[in-house]
Every structure is written in structure tokens, then in C-alpha cells.
Write a structure and sequence with these properties.
single chain, alpha+beta, DUF2794 domain-containing protein, 5 strands, DUF2794, 5-stranded antiparallel sheet, 24% strand, 112 residues
Length: 112
């Protein structure tokens, strides 16, 4: 008489999200850029096909950069991408730390 009732699969929608270790890498860079006075705010979106970490200089404007995770591109171009304010892909790859180096170069210039 002990029967297990599964959750209905049709009503669940899967979303792409950043893992805790991925967020640690992103937030480490974010903290350094805030300390340098370059960035002031961020937003995180978890959608069906993509997770987005948006970086803002001011709260009420368009994001300076978007860090995107698209797992469907894992075997093709790499699941991580940094996209500029104009929509141009600045760097794409399979390793998050390597992709974020394009933004760390801007930190070195800001400190000089």
C-alpha cells in the first residue's frame, strides 16, 4: 500500500542557473571591480536556455557587460560568454576563469 507518487513532469520548467562555484568566481571579479570604482550594481537572471549575470555602472542604465552561461553550447563554442554593452561577444569558451580574463584586463587598466 506504500506507493510513491512522482511529481508531475509537465508542470516543471527547467531553468539554467549559475552553480555556487561559478558565482564565487564571478563575484570575486565583481568585488574587485567595485573596489576599483568601475562597477556599482549587478543582476542575475535564470531563464530556460541561459543564465545571465549583468553588470551595471549605474542602476538605471543598460548593463556594461553580460556574463552568460548557455549549456547547449558546451560542446560547440563553449558555454560561457562575456558580451559587451553593444551586444558584441568579447570572449567565449568552456572555462569561466579564462573567459573572465577579458574583464580582468580592464581592471588592470583601471588601477594604473
Amino acid at each position: 500500500m506504500n506507493s510513491i507518487t512522482p511529481f508531475p513532469s509537465g508542470s516543471q520548467t527547467s531553468q539554467v542557473a549559475f552553480h555556487r562555484t561559478e558565482l564565487a568566481v564571478i563575484l570575486s571579479l565583481y568585488g574587485r571591480m567595485v573596489a576599483a570604482g568601475e562597477w556599482r550594481d549587478y543582476g542575475i537572471s535564470s531563464l530556460r536556455d541561459v543564465a545571465v549575470f549583468s553588470v551595471f555602472r549605474r542602476t538605471a542604465e543598460n548593463p556594461l557587460y553580460r556574463i552568460e552561461k548557455r549549456p547547449k553550447l558546451r560542446s560547440k563554442q563553449g558555454q560561457y560568454a562575456v558580451i559587451g554593452v553593444d551586444g558584441q561577444v568579447l570572449k567565449r569558451g568552456a572555462d569561466l576563469k579564462t573567459v573572465l580574463r577579458v574583464l580582468e584586463r580592464k581592471l588592470i587598466r583601471a588601477v594604473d
